[in-house]
Amino acid sequence: MDTRWNDPLYTTTGINSEGLEGHAYVPNGLNVKTSNPLNSHPGTNPEQLLSLSLSTCLEATLEAIEREHHLPHTSEVRVHVAFIGSRASYQFLVHAQIKVAGVDFATAQAMTAEAEHRCPVSKLLANSGNYTVETVTEFTDPK
């Protein structure tokens, strides 16, 4: 086993034994109804969970960067996730947009690059070929 598991800062476990149409949960914590994004059933899907995970991680990292530079917290992150492909070759496309108000665009780009390299979820996605990050002054759809 990887020895980095020996001294973690935090651990959690997510459990799903019901599949896409059911529930996923964290013992003694979060419990969410899950649903396929291609139907109208109520519930959360993997695409939504991924977008929330990445947007929260990037935003928390940006907040720390702003604090380190003695800047007010003005950043906002939006993450778009697309489900593409066909049976046996499905993929996610993930596109994060980062907006930092109150600083010039070059500074916002530098903060975006730093957040992208510090956020653990971003690091996890970085070499997938399906993940992009951009600094924006206005949010748009990634089409």
From TrEMBL:
InterPro entries: KH_dom-like_a/b, OHR, OsmC/Ohr_fam, OsmC/Ohrsf. It holds the Pfam family OsmC. It comes from the Bacteria. Transmembrane segments: none annotated. One of its GO terms (biological process) is response to oxidative stress. Gene3D superfamilies: 3.30.300.20. Belongs to the OsmC/Ohr family. This is Peroxiredoxin, Ohr subfamily.
